[in-house]
Amino acid sequence: MAKIFLDANIFIDLVEKRKSIDSKKLRIHDLYLSPLSVHILTYLYKYKIPDERLADIDRFFKLVSFDTELTVKALGGPTSDFEDNIQLHSATEAECDIFLTNDQKLLKLKFFGKVELKSSLES
After folding, report:
1. CATH number of the domain bearing residue 30
2. For FRET with 77, which of 43, 50, 87, 108 sits at 20 to 30 Å CA-CA?
3. Measured between alpha carbons, how far is 99 from 21 in angstroms, rounded to an integer?
4. What is the pLDDT of residues 7-16, one digit of tens each?
């Protein structure tokens, strides 16, 4: 069992069932998420809160604290995209093994600290 951090794009694909993400393969792992990803999802898709799709979010995902320290780290990089930096630093804060993303720019990093960036659990 691995500690897997889901980038916002993977989380949105999972909730919105936009792509063929095998949720069964994910369920056997500890899944981590930034509260920023929840904000992005609800803003993009205009969710009205409460929403049943998010009712048990804390049962399926461990939410990483989004605080001052994380914000300051993200303002320092490693990329020029603040949101990407929040996601990356959240994954390292949670000591995740894998960072799942569809973001080709992030995948080029291959690793951020000890966290391996991957587009799927197979790759």
Report:
1. 3.40.50.1010
2. 43
3. 15
4. 999 999 999 8
